[in-house]
Amino acid sequence: MDPCVCRDGLVVQARSYSEFTFFGAFVFECCGGDAPLRDCELPERHRRHAQVFRTLAVLFLVCGILGTLLTTCCLNARRRYLPLTHGDAELLVPKQQGDGWALHQAVALERWCVSLQDLQQFRRLVMHAVSGGVIQPNERDMFDVRDFHVGPSVYTVNEHFIKPVTAAAGKMSWGLLKNSAGLPCDVFVTHCWAEGIYEFIDRVESSWPSGARGAYVCFLSNPQNLDIGSLIARPSESPFALALRSSPMVLVLPNSKVSIYTRLWWRSAKR
């Protein structure tokens, strides 16, 4: 604020005090030199109000900072290494091999789904594979093995984890490896393979509709070791189309890598 400058023989006196702003505002004018000094002093009531406003401002600032830190901690609490639980390790070493092709012929295409619990287990298994060196950074995907926010891309996870594990079990999809009779398709998930697997699962989990039993997720629902080309030769009868038609909900997942709306499949799905 520019200082108030008076002519010789005049002094600055406070004319009024406004309480309509948060900290209050003083309005000054130049008064005669013989004005009583007490008329220029700020009333005690206004001094107390100004002090209260300053104290409240500091308290609000501190509460805002603490709230931001607490929210950040809560959001990141889950983003840590999750050890395998009972039943996880057995999935990596199947006791017997099935016939993936026959299984996919027997189960309706729109039922090749995974549950929310399947996705949560898949996250643990991928973390274990990354920490064990099974999934490693490569020229196409230089992910940080210490990062639990984004993780390796779906391309990398499919090539170095899904394919080897399902091949050992009989070449069925991950969905039918977990649910041999299939699951009802309540959610159709569309996404990009360039996204990180942890980012993908985090967003599916946080958006999972209440009461949903199964979700169609292409890289987990389709058999990655079988001839996928034959499955989509007739797009209207492909697993994608049948699952999309049978699902009452569609979940479109954005990511930090690429726009979901640039995908050719998404453009055709909108039609």
Give a structural overview.
- Keywords: Membrane, Transmembrane, Transmembrane helix.
- This protein is mostly helical and about 270 residues long.
- The chain has two domains: about 10-75, no CATH class; about 85-270, no CATH class.
- The chain contains eleven helices and five strands.
- The strands form two sheets. A three-stranded parallel beta sheet has the order 4-3-5. A two-stranded antiparallel sheet has the order 1-2.
- Strand 1 (about 10-20) and strand 2 form a beta hairpin.
- Helix 4 (about 115-130) packs antiparallel against helix 7.
- The protein starts with 9 loop residues before the first strand and ends with a helix.
The major sheet is characterized as: 3 strands, parallel
What share of residues is helical?
40-55%
Instruction: Let me know the average pLDDT.
Output: 82
Quickly count the helices. Answer: 11
Low-confidence stretches: 35-41, 266-271
What is the topology, as strand order, of the major beta sheet? 4-3-5
Radius of gyration equals 32 Å
Separation of the first and last Cα atoms: 62 Å
Number of domains: 2
Amount of beta strand: 5-15%
Helix/strand class: mainly alpha
The global form is elongated
Instruction: Give the SSE order as H and E letters.
Output: EEHHHHHHEHEHHHEH
Quaternary structure annotation: single chain
Q: How many beta strands in the DSSP annotation?
A: 5
Keywords: Membrane, Transmembrane, Transmembrane helix
Transmembrane segments: 52-70
